[in-house]
Amino acid sequence: MRDPLPAPSFLVQNAQPIARALSLRTLPFHAHEILPSFGLYIFLNKFVAPKVSAKIVPRTFSALSEKTKRNWDVHVVSLLQSCFINTAALLVIWLDKRRWKMGPRERVWGYTGATGMVQSFSAGYFLWDLVISATNLDVHGTGALAHAASALAVCLLGFRPFCNYYGLNFVLYELSTPFLNIHWFMDKLKMTGSRAQLINGIALITTFGCSRLLWGTYQSIKMYQDIWAAFKTPGGLPVPPWLAIAYVASNTTLSCLNFYWFGKMVRALRKRFNKPKDEGDKKES
């Protein structure tokens, strides 16, 4: 399936030297998607998120500290991006019939323009996320920085192309992100412990566990098997050790963070909705 947003020829030509230097052969065909999306996320973060939030929830937003406002704006961008990228990824997975016919070799070295498009918008977002995390460590912490760096590495290696097939599958990690952002907003809107937050929390835990832990682990195992098969291939296109190590290390980092964050989310939800024992005893007496 072709990229529905074809690249201008002049941009493809100008991006060739950078692509050759980085050994990212398909990058020139998607530079027109990476750079504008990166700029769009900056624009949303700096201008759209604070202005719209100040109009929709003026009292809540104005009462936030400067640090929390920065975090709020990032959550707005994350919410918008996750809804868009999930829709794009699911459409391409469903409509790109070429992906359905790929064997182990094609899943490692194969490429389709539509898959590259989705990875381009993801790369633009994670490039923005990396900049935001690095410049706001006091807000987001080192875990968010490691996540952004690893996710960006996975996206960029897809332009080699390498594991372009799996890169799109891993985009579906973001299925849980809208619920995560909604949960965070509910805390700030004084809806902590409400029935609405409980329902959203159940949806969050379910989608996070299914998309990141079950689906993500299954896809990681399949990817490791395909890389190992390609690594042992005599002749043809064996996988360079450094490339396999870089991709596996990035993917493993993301997987470990997912399990760590899942534990934190479960504890946070239990803390919000589990009533203290002494409080329950008082109501029974």
From TrEMBL:
InterPro entries linked to this entry: TLC-dom (IPR006634), TLCD (IPR050846)
PROSITE patterns with a match to the protein in the record: TLC
Keyword check for Plastid: no
Keyword Membrane: yes
Subcellular localization(s) per the UniProt record: Membrane
Residues annotated as transmembrane: 74-96, 108-128, 198-221, 241-262
Keywords, sorted A to Z: Membrane, Transmembrane, Transmembrane helix
Membrane topology note: Multi-pass membrane protein
The protein, known as: TLC domain-containing protein
All copies of domain TLC, residue ranges: 67-274
